[in-house]
Amino acid sequence: MSENLFQSQRILSIDALRGFDMLLIIFADHFFFNLNEGADTSLTASLAKQFSHPDWFGSTFYDIIMPLFLFVVGAVIPFSLSKRMQENASKGAIYRKLLRRFIILFILGWIVQGNLLAWDIDQLHIFSNTLQAIAVGYLFSCLAYIHLKRKWLYVVFAFCLIIYALILTVPNVPEVGRSMLLPDQNFALYFDRLVLGKFDDGLQYTWLLTGFGFTATTLSGVFAGELIKSKLSRKKIATYLLLIGIAALALGFTWGIWHPIVKKLWTSTFVLASSGVCFILMALFYWVVDVKGKSKWAFPLKVIGMNAITAYVLSHVINFREVAAFLLYGLEQYSGGYYQMILSIGGFGVLYLLLWYMYKKGTFIKV
Questions:
Q1: Cα(53)–Cα(33) distance, integer angstroms
Q2: 178 has which bridge partners?
Q3: pTM recorded for the entire structure
Q4: Of 122, 130, 222, 259, which is the most buried if we count CB atoms within 10 A?
Q5: Separation between Cα atoms, residue 99 and residue 110, nearest integer Å
Q6: CA 219 → CA 12, 18, 33, 151, 332, distances in Å?
Q7: Residue 140, C-beta contacts closer than 8 angstroms, at least 6 positions apart
Q8: pLDDT tens, 6-35?
Q9: pLDDT digits (tens, 9 = 90+) for 59-116
Q10: Tell me, what DSSP letter sits at residue 58?
Q11: Which of 192, 214, 204 is nearest to 69 (CA)?
């Protein structure tokens, strides 16, 4: 969403962090899996485990990818909406823009994971993708940002966490009893299946009521964006980002003793813990790029981050590994068990070249 920033006010660390997140999404998971397939060592096995989701409780590094995506989207909101407000855009024009983005993100989500391109109504999943989670978090965070004073945004954030925690623990689930944070025993999943019916994705992830969590995660990014946009010195901003991150992470783990961290349910403790990690990563990137001025190393990440949605959709719609296999097929006889890893690198290289070409031509696809 960074296209809406004033060029002169562009926060390079946000672009770099977005690119870092996209690098994890489109490359890191299958790279480390295939690396372990070839090397088969305890170290590569540990790395591969960190780039796969846990079955239910707990969290791995891979779990930060989706909340970081929402967080970065939220971090841009104070800049993008401020620009529109300064241009005296009517509320109607802003609402139309928000609704347009919401719809486009939902459709792209259908394309990526909702089986829309199968053109079979029986295979369509209405709500099943990160882009759709972003659509929900972005829409409600923007509406809150437009209509509420800043102090009330914190109230909305707390409300989302509390109400969703109650939803997951207070109501009864038919034929189960009181809702519990367990597979097939929680009210959020029951509600999804009740409303979506045959269009539910059939997995244990929850989506509709989890919108409270998606909104809270996006709002955490808004808070970071507001801090970065403030008149504080850059060193103080980096320090506050770090301290807030540590505090949120500690609070998430502490509350998690009674209300466990479950990424598939996007529990309120997961929101706090993951937002804490996002703040810490934001502090690190902001310190290196915007405080210390060391930005050259981040150029490859910026190339990816400037067309993040494009990179995400293309990586899911086009099998770049197959493209790489066509180009690198002769290496299989020499690389043995590492061939799949080479294809991961090659496929990413093809996608990156496309993104680099778009960057050089100034082609940034807006959503």
A1: 12
A2: 172
A3: 0.91
A4: 222
A5: 17
A6: 20, 16, 33, 12, 47
A7: 211, 215, 218
A8: 344 568 899 999 999 999 988 888 888 888
A9: 888 899 999 999 999 999 998 887 656 566 677 888 888 999 999 999 999 998 888 8
A10: B
A11: 214
